UniProtKB/TrEMBL annotation, chain A:
PROSITE patterns: COX3 (PS50253). Its main location: membrane. This is Heme-copper oxidase subunit III. InterPro entries: Cyt_c/ubiquinol_Oxase_su3 (IPR024791), Cyt_c_oxidase-like_su3 (IPR000298), Cyt_c_oxidase_su3-like_sf (IPR035973), Cyt_c_oxidase_su3_a-hlx (IPR013833). SUPFAM superfamilies: Cytochrome c oxidase subunit III-like (SSF81452). GO terms for cellular component: plasma membrane. The lineage of its organism: Bacteria, Pseudomonadati, Pseudomonadota, Alphaproteobacteria, Sphingomonadales. It comes from Sphingomonas parva. It is found in: Cell membrane. Pfam families: COX3.
UniProtKB/TrEMBL annotation, chain B:
Its EC number is 7.1.1.9. The keyword Oxidoreductase applies. This is Cytochrome c oxidase subunit 1. The gene is ctaD. Cytochrome c oxidase is the component of the respiratory chain that catalyzes the reduction of oxygen to water. Subunits 1-3 form the functional core of the enzyme complex. CO I is the catalytic subunit of the enzyme. Electrons originating in cytochrome c are transferred via the copper A center of subunit 2 and heme A of subunit 1 to the bimetallic center formed by heme A3 and copper B. It comes from Sphingomonas parva. GO terms for molecular function: cytochrome-c oxidase activity; heme binding; metal ion binding; oxidoreductase activity. It is a multi-pass membrane protein. GO terms for biological process: electron transport coupled proton transport; oxidative phosphorylation; respiratory electron transport chain.
TrEMBL record, chain C:
Keywords: Membrane, Transmembrane, Transmembrane helix. The keyword Transmembrane helix applies. This is Uncharacterized protein. It comes from Sphingomonas parva. The chain crosses the membrane at residues 26-47, 67-90, 117-143.
Length: 199, 642, 152
């Protein structure tokens, strides 16, 4: 006769990383958002390919602000990665500093990007290039803001001591999202800034 | 039959599981439930309500078109009706009804206790319901979407269509897209992580293959139309120039983005329905599906090719013939996987011992309609022929054969088939046959002549036509067929309602079917299975009879997991248990988030930015509460019954 | 460990020969041909559109010299990739064909043995997509021009 007993093996409950369902859910989110950017870049390229006259109107955009800003955003990913690895391997006592420095760098990126916007000689409704430019970079900016929001929420949770478990699932999810936002920027940066440059 | 020894688990234990998983009673439970079975039934009921609304819209149009020069509808009313009809059927009925089946059936078929993200499941339903209502808010004002379901610019730019009609369409589709995306992600993760131990990917029912393929495709396709709609809304609201030629925009960009979504989407509307047939038809042929592996792969292949055929909707837009020919080739090749599936069904019927019950009739009827619709699709894949046929009633005939034939017939057959599981009662057989024959004959009278009037040159989307076109007789016949078809649907609904209270008791497995959903009681308890099954083959309940495999699935011993709401998490490919998943219970968060999103979209529609901002802020707040980290739980030894 | 201690051991593993074909290899066999086809389609479409458009007056592809040759090379590369996909799938099938009882007909009908199921899936998928790649290439070879005649 069967009876109620316990299995021999210990199984994690909910788990983190690939064991958890949240990790896979985050990958689905990243996949659908990634393809959204692919469609945005396709649209930008399509409008450019069909354009009559200069594309971009008035020549290639300057790299003076955008290039350093790119390094700033990439640097923020590196800071986050190092900080979280140190935390996971118990070399750091708290993820809080890494989260805050990353958020500060992300915030600086947003400010530089807004400055870049205000420097543009055209406005959103000037022409197809302008609306595509602001929409593509604006979508990315919105994702950076969402990532910043996530980082700050994680910082609060960490401060409250709710992320004690190592590795922690919320931290892992925030980390995937922030890296995603940075990698997408490379595609956006290439589309908007690098492709139109004349050698 | 595998051993289903009922009540082996002590009653007291079953009650404990039931109490753990049961939705709270009363109004709170109604709004807070995360039970996939309740959500699945809600999806089914809501989508059938939309089917009826869309159907009534179609009937009104058929009265208008019954004779030349009728004056029942003004042109503007007709525009709104055919647009609403298309939007309702394609977006609010066809996919959600399949989500209903899958939501209800997946955990039962996979031997699990719920979907991977039960609260996301509830969220996806509430978003669907509210976005459906949103798409209809313009109706009382006489300002419903009026640009057809694919809503081409420049007809729909502000200059030519200044009302809020198109804004409702654009924002409504983005809104619905959120529901589709979160629902699809839930299916994908559920598939990868919550199958019963032993159910490796080669032991999944075809419905599961169909739905996961459609879900993965939706994740990749829906952003395209959401983006197109956003661009259109920006064009209309803020003077952007994405589609406006005056500002160097490109009207064809709309068509590219729309169809890059639209074609994968129509496959998403049919693949799970084909899965319904692949799983249920063999039960009525008393044998397994012929060529399971080939059919599973045909499903995936159809979807992948479906991403490379979107330009065949744009053959007549003046693209270079060279460019068109690539897409024509792909559109012809896509017939190969479809043919694989058709021949598998035919071989299953041919080599089986068919039992002519109502579901069988619907599935066999589906095969016929699929072949007719497939052939007319194959014809229009040829660019030269498409130039003759595009924008005529021939295309209307084609799309109704494929969408009604491949979606609605399997859906109705599927309801006849799984109604006993959902309610514990059989549906009436006599009325069932009447409903099938009325629907089938009405359908063909209504839609087959459309091929003819299309070939005779009748354009689609016209509110009336002159008498000297000589098509009055055909059109009258079409309208009569449409009403006959509607009568068939009505008979089906009457049967449904009568059977709810008067149907014969079903028992757990009235059709003597092979898959796991039939191993539990009808209707299933809130926790689905007392013990999570251990699966040894694709037909756990037919193993003794088929002798396909030497081993036997275990349904009465295995993981019990009775400490709180728990189910087993398994590896993506081979379904080896590797984690205990603790599931959330009743929650108002999904409804709260859906309401905040609704507020956001209403604000955007009215250009009331404060309201939109409130909605967004509320949504973020709910999300933070939703994702708040739970206190960590140590690893455990799972409770088992062995 | 008996099934009284670990219930999943009540049935044998669904893919006993999973070690014989590595997962990345199986995955590559599955996606190589479809990816090649999608790449071929998108490259062919966008390149031929560039060559044939911009003002809508060109009939020959020689507006951009060498473009047709480039398209041909892309098509040949896709055919090659599809063939490699088939070969990988075939090799995986050879290694895992005895994973469970029954030969290829049983596998097509019943699907037992997860490794060989994926191998034969890759074979079917690669086969269909190789046909698709060939059909796309045929379009290129038959037309050779942006449009028959001067209807543009």
């Amino acid at each position: 006769m069967p009876e109620i007993r316990v299995a021999a093996r210990l199984l994690p409950v909910n788990g983190t990383g690939r064991l958890s369902t949240g990790w896979w859910g985050m990958l689905c989110l990243v996949a659908t958002e990634g393809i959204l950017f692919a469609y945005l870049i396709f649209s930008h390229g399509y409008l450019g390919a069909q354009a009559v006259g200069d594309w971009p109107p008035g020549g290639a955009p300057a790299l003076a602000l955008a290039l350093p800003n790119t390094f700033l955003l990439l640097g923020s990913s590196i800071v986050l990665e190092i900080g979280l690895r140190r935390y996971e391997t118990a070399r750091a006592g708290s993820p809080l500093p890494a989260l805050l420095v990353t958020a500060a760098m992300g915030g600086a990126f947003v400010l530089v990007q807004l400055k870049e916007w205000s420097n543009k000689p055209f406005s959103f409704d000037s022409n197809a290039y302008a609306c595509s430019y602001f929409t593509l970079t604006g979508f990315h900016l919105a994702h950076v803001l969402a990532g910043l929001f996530a980082l700050l929420v994680l910082a609060v949770w960490s401060w409250q001591g709710r992320l004690r478990r190592r590795p922690s699932l919320p931290l892992a999810l925030g980390r995937i999202y922030w890296h995603f936002v940075d990698i997408v920027w490379l595609a956006v940066f290439t589309t908007i800034y690098l492709v139109p440059q004349q050698p | 039959m595998a051993t289903i020894a009922r009540n082996r688990l002590p009653d007291q234990e079953r009650e404990k599981l039931r109490a753990t998983w049961e939705t709270a009673p009363g109004v709170y439970g109604w709004f807070a439930t995360v039970d996939h079975k309740q959500i699945g039934i809600r999806y089914l009921v809501t989508s059938i309500v939309f089917l009826l609304i869309g159907g009534v819209e179609a009937l009104v149009m058929r009265v208008q078109l019954a004779q030349p020069g009728m004056k029942l509808l003004a042109p503007e009313q007709y525009d709104q009706l055919f647009s609403l009809h298309g939007v309702t059927m394609i977006f609010l009925y066809a996919l959600p009804v399949l989500s209903g089946f899958s939501n209800y059936l997946w955990p039962l078929m996979l031997g699990s206790r719920d979907m991977a993200f039960p609260r996301v499941n509830a969220l996806s339903y509430w978003l669907y319901l509210l976005s459906g209502v949103f798409l209809y808010v313009g109706v009382p004002l006489g300002q419903a979407p009026n640009g057809g379901w694919f809503n081409y610019v420049p007809y729909t730019s502000r200059e030519y269509d200044p009302g809020i009609n198109i804004d409702i369409y654009a924002l409504g589709l983005i809104f619905l897209g959120i529901s589709t995306a979160v629902g699809s992600a839930n299916f994908v993760v559920t598939l990868l992580r919550t199958r019963a131990p032993g159910m490796s990917i080669n032991r999944m029912p075809i419905l599961v293959w169909g739905t996961v393929t459609a879900s993965a495709a939706n994740l990749l396709a829906v952003p395209s139309v959401s983006l197109a709609c956003l661009m259109l809304w920006l064009d209309r609201s803020f003077g952007a120039h994405f589609f406006e030629v005056s500002g160097h925009g490109q009207p064809l960009l709309w068509q590219h983005l729309f169809w890059a979504f639209g074609h994968p989407w129509v496959y998403a509307l049919v693949l799970p329905a084909m899965g319904i047939v692949s799983d249920a038809l063999p039960v009525f042929c008393r044998r397994p599906l012929v060529g399971y592996t080939a059919v599973a792969l045909a499903t995936v292949t159809t979807m992948v090719i479906g991403f490379g055929v979107w330009v065949h909707h744009m053959f007549a837009t003046g693209l270079p013939a060279m460019a068109i020919s690539f897409f024509s080739a792909a559109s012809i090749i896509i017939a190969i996987p479809s043919a694989i599936a058709v021949f598998s069904w035919l071989a299953t019927i041919w080599t089986g011992q068919p039992v002519f019950r109502t579901p069988f009739l619907f599935f066999a009827g589906f095969v016929i309609l699929f072949v007719i619709g497939g052939v007319s699709g194959f014809m229009t894949a040829s660019a030269a022929l498409d130039w003759q046929l595009t924008d005529t009633y021939f295309v209307v005939a084609h799309l109704h054969y494929v969408l009604l034939g491949i979606n609605l017939f399997p859906v109705v057959g599927g309801i006849y088939y799984w109604f006993p599981k959902m309610t514990g009662r059989m549906m009436g057989e006599r009325l069932g046959r009447w409903s099938f024959w009325t629907m089938f004959i009405g359908f063909n009278i209504a839609f087959f002549p459309m091929h003819v009037v299309g070939l005779e040159g009748m354009p689609r989307r016209v509110y009336t036509y002159p008498a000297d076109l000589g098509l009055g007789g055909w059109n009258l016949l079409i309208s009569v067929g449409a009403f006959l078809f509607a009568a068939g649907i009505l008979l089906f609904l009457v049967n449904l309602v009568l059977s709810l209270s008067r149907g014969a008791p079903a028992g757990p497995n009235p059709w003597d079917a092979p898959t796991l959903e039939w191993a539990t009681s009808s209707p299933p308890p809130p926790h689905n299975f007392d013990i999570i099954p251990i699966v040894a083959s694709r037909h756990p309940l037919w193993e003794d009879r088929l002798e396909e495999v030497e081993e036997r699935s275990q349904l009465d011993r295995g993981y019990l997991l009775d400490v709180g709401r728990e189910t087993i998490g398994t590896t993506p490919m081979d379904a080896e248990p590797n984690v205990i998943l603790r599931m959330p219970g009743d929650s108002l968060l999904p409804l709260g988030l859906a309401l905040c999103v609704t507020l956001l979209f209403l604000g955007l529609l009215a250009h009331a930015w404060v309201i939109a901002g409130l909605g967004l802020a509320g949504a973020l707040g709910v999300l933070v509460a939703w994702l708040a980290p739970a206190p960590p739980v140590e690893a455990q030894k799972a409770r088992i019954y062995a | 460990m008996s099934s009284r201690d670990a219930p999943e051991t009540a049935v044998s593993h669904p893919s006993p020969q999973r070690e014989r074909v590595s997962s990345p290899r199986l995955l590559l066999a599955l996606i190589l041909a479809p990816t090649a086809w999608l790449g071929q389609l998108i490259a062919s479409y966008s390149l031929s559109s560039v060559a044939c458009d911009p003002s809508g007056s060109s009939v020959d592809m020689e507006v951009v010299p060498g473009l047709w040759t480039l398209l041909l090379l892309i098509n040949l590369a896709s055919l090659a990739a599809g063939t490699v996909g088939i070969w990988l799938a075939w090799a995986a099938w050879r290694r895992s064909r005895r994973e469970k009882a029954g030969g290829r007909h049983t596998l097509l009908d019943v699907g037992e043995g997860r490794t060989r199921f994926m191998a034969v899936s890759a074979l079917i998928v690669s086969g269909i997509f190789l046909v698709a790649i060939a059909a796309e290439a045929a379009a290129l070879l038959i037309l050779q021009r942006c449009a028959p005649g001067t209807w543009l």
